[in-house]
Amino acid sequence: MSRVGKPARPRETSVAGTIGPMTLRAVLVDMDGTIWENPIRIAAVREELGLPQDGRPILDSIAELPNDERARAIAVLEAHERYGVERGSLRPGAHELLDFLRARGVRSVLVTNNSRASTEAVLARHNLRFDLVLTRDDGPLKPDPEAFLRPLALLGMPPQGALVLGDSHFDFQAAVAAGIPTVILVSPAEWMRSYFPLNTPYHEVPDLPTAQRVMERLLDKT
């Protein structure tokens, strides 16, 4: 009789160098694709609106449209976002991750390019509690570094004590520009890799439980 082994543990990879220990005081968390699975794909929305697939935030592209086209594009985007709230699902490990950070005295901050209305609907639906929540209605969009620097300033914390947990090049680019030393990306899409900052170390993980283990190791080293 053949023996069935234990399931393989999800792997975590440190990419492009060694990431050293840090004093972790705040984790800046992305929403769509990171802690929450949104069925809406922005690439498909771009195609519907006739926008180029240029690796920029969709709202930057919409802002360049003539006034009448811009209003229609925003209405289409918001309709997709409402659909996403209704059909999306929380990723396994999200509650456990927030509980872990709270128990270790690390502040949790949600920073998303989604709207305030959609974000609040997702948080209420899944009973998610963050110390601070910033959406596209509250300030600059990622990859602008101010998307991360602003919440850190509100908390009175330096970038050197922060970590970014995301899934996209926007999260990675904003973190590097803001001087945040540690980035964890959850299953980033292959097409995004061409927009990653060059020669910059980061952790890549398949899921949130693995991301939590990375944070635990970082905290245990300090």
Please explain how this structure is put together.
With 222 residues, the protein is α/β, with parallel strands linked by helices. The chain folds into 2 domains: 13-37 and 90-220, 3-Layer(aba) Sandwich (Rossmann fold), CATH 3.40.50; 42-87, Orthogonal Bundle (434 Repressor (Amino-terminal Domain)). The protein is 40% helix and 15% strand. It has helices at residues 42-49, 58-63, 67-87, 94-103, 116-126, 146-155, 169-178, 208-220; strands at residues 13-15, 26-29, 36-37, 89-90, 107-111, 132-134, 162-166, 182-186, 202-205. The strands form 2 sheets. Strands 1-9-8-7-2-5-6 form a 7-stranded mixed β-sheet, sandwiched between helices. Helix 5 (116-126) links the parallel strand 5 (107-111) and strand 6. The longest helix is centred in the middle third of the chain and has 21 residues, at 67-87. It is globular, with a radius of gyration of 18 Å. Mean pLDDT is 91; it is low at 1-10 and 16-21.
Adjacency order of strands in the biggest sheet:
1-9-8-7-2-5-6
Structural class: alpha/beta
Tell me the helix content: 40-55%
Could you give the order of the helices and strands? EEEHHHEHEHEHEHEEH
Main beta sheet:
7 strands, mixed
Helix count? 8
**What is the typical, i.e. mean, pLDDT?**
91
Strand content: 5-15%
- CATH superfamily of the largest domain, by name, is HAD superfamily/HAD-like
Q: What's the end-to-end separation, in Å?
A: 48 Å
Class of the largest domain, according to the CATH hierarchy?
A: Alpha Beta
| Gross CATH architecture of the largest domain | 3-Layer(aba) Sandwich
Total discrete domains? 2
Please report the total strand number as a whole number.
Answer: 9
Shape: globular
